[in-house]
Amino acid sequence: MTRIGFIGAGTVGTALAVRLFQKGCSIAAISSRSLSSAQRLANLVSGCQVYSTAQEVANGADLIFITTPDDVIAKIASEVRWRSGQGVVHCSGAHSVDILEAARQFGANVGSFHPLQTFATVNQAIENLPGSTFALEAEEPLLSQLKELASLLNGRWVELKPGEKVLYHTAAVFVSNYLVTLVKLALDLWQAFGVPAKEATQALLPLLRGTVNNIENIGLPNCLTGPISRGDLGTIRRHLATLEAQDSSLLTVYRDLGLETIPIALAKGKIDENKAKELKTLLKEA
Ligand SMILES: NC(=O)c1ccc[n+]([C@@H]2O[C@H](COP(=O)([O-])OP(=O)(O)OC[C@H]3O[C@@H](n4cnc5c(N)ncnc54)[C@H](OP(=O)(O)O)[C@@H]3O)[C@@H](O)[C@H]2O)c1
Fold first, then answer.
1. Residue 126's pLDDT band (boundaries 50, 70, 90)?
2. Distance between alpha carbon 73 and the CA centroid of its chain, in Å?
3. Quick one: which of 55, 124, 154, 234 has the fewest CB in 10 Å?
4. Residue 5's pLDDT is what?
C-alpha cells in the first residue's frame, strides 16, 4: 500500500490526512514546523510516525504532500533529497507544479492537488473536504494516483495544463473570496438603515442560499433574477441615485457587475437587444 506523508500539519494537511485515513489509506509520516502540530495530526490517524524534519518524511513515505503555506513549498522541495519515482505534491491553487522543479530534478514525480474549497478551520476543513473538486496537475503514473485519491474523497477533478493554473485560481477568487466581499458590501448598506452586521447576515443568508440553490438546480442563465434580468430601468436608476447619495464608492462596483449581468439577462431571453443597450447606457453613464 502507498505510504502517504505530509509536510505541514495545518488545515489542509490535517483534513486530507484524516479523510484519506478514514478511506483506508496509509498515512505513514508527518512533520511540521512545530512538533506539536505534527503530533496533533498524528493523534487523529493511527500508525502515523511523527518526524522533526521534512527529509525524514520523504524517507518514510512514497507519496508526499507538501501542505505548508505557499511561500515555503519551493524551499522545502529544494532542501529535501527526494527519491526517483517518489510522488511529491503540493496543494496550492495559485502555483503550478513548476515550484516542485527541485524535486523533479531528483527524478520524483511531481504534481499539484488543489481542493477547490474554502477551509477556515481544521474541523470545518475535515467536514467540507469530501465532495470537493480537485484541480490536478501531474503526469502518469502520479496523475492516476491523484484521481484515485480525489475519488476516494467523493470528489470530482479537473486536469489543468501548464499555464492554466492562474486563470483557474482567479475564477476561484471570484466565486469564493469576492462573494464574501459582496456580502460585506450588502451588510454595510444594511447598517445604514440601522441593522447590525450579525442580524443582517442572518437576514441575508436565506437569500444567499436561495441563489446558490438556483445556480445548482436551474443553472445559468435562467437562475438570474432581479432588475437587470427584467430590464427594470427605473429601479436601476433609483439604485444608482441612492448609492450616489449614500456611498458613491459603491457605484463603480454596482455599475461593473451590472454591465457583466446584461449578457446573462439577454441569454435568459427576458430582455431584448434594445433593452440591453438602454441598460448599458444607463450604467455606463453612472
Ligand atoms: N485554507 C484553504 O482554504 C486552502 C484551500 C485550498 C488549498 N490550500 C492550500 O493548502 C496549503 C496549506 O494551506 P493551509 O490553509 O492548510 O495552511 P495552514 O493552516 O497555515 O497550515 C500550514 C502548515 O504548514 C506548517 N509550516 C509552515 N512553515 C513550515 C515549514 N517551513 N516547514 C514545515 N511546515 C511548515 C505550519 O506549521 P505549524 O503549525 O507546525 O507551525 C502549518 O501547520 C497551501 O498551499 C494553500 O494554498 C488552502
1. very high
2. 18
3. 234
4. 98
Measured in Å, residue 68 CA sits from the centre of ligand 1 at: 3
pLDDT class of 264 with cuts at 50, 70, 90: very high
Largest CA distance in the chain: 68
* Cα(96)–Cα(103) distance, integer angstroms: 14
What integer pLDDT is reported at residue 247 of this predicted model?
84
Q: What is the pTM of this model?
A: 0.90
| CATH T-level topology, domain 3-163 | Rossmann fold (3.40.50)
Ligand 1 centre distance from Cα of residue 101 (Å): 20
Cα of 76 to ligand 1 centre, how many Å? 12
The mean pLDDT of the chain is 97
Domain boundaries, the chain: 3-163, 167-284
As a whole number, mean pLDDT of residues 209-223 equals 98
Segment 182-194, tens digit of pLDDT: 999 999 999 999 9
Q: Which grid coordinates belong to 44?
A: 487523529
For 13-30, what is the mean pLDDT?
A: 98
Sheet order of strands, 3-7 included: 49-50, 26-31, 3-7, 63-66, 87-90, 109-116, 133-137, 156-159
Ligand 1 neighbour 34 (Cβ under 6 A):
yes
- What is the rounded distance in angstroms from the CA atom of residue 111 to the CA atom of residue 277? 47
Q: Which grid cell is 208?
A: 444567499
Ligand 1 binding pocket includes 119 (Cβ within 6 Å): yes
β pairing state of 26-31 and 49-50: parallel
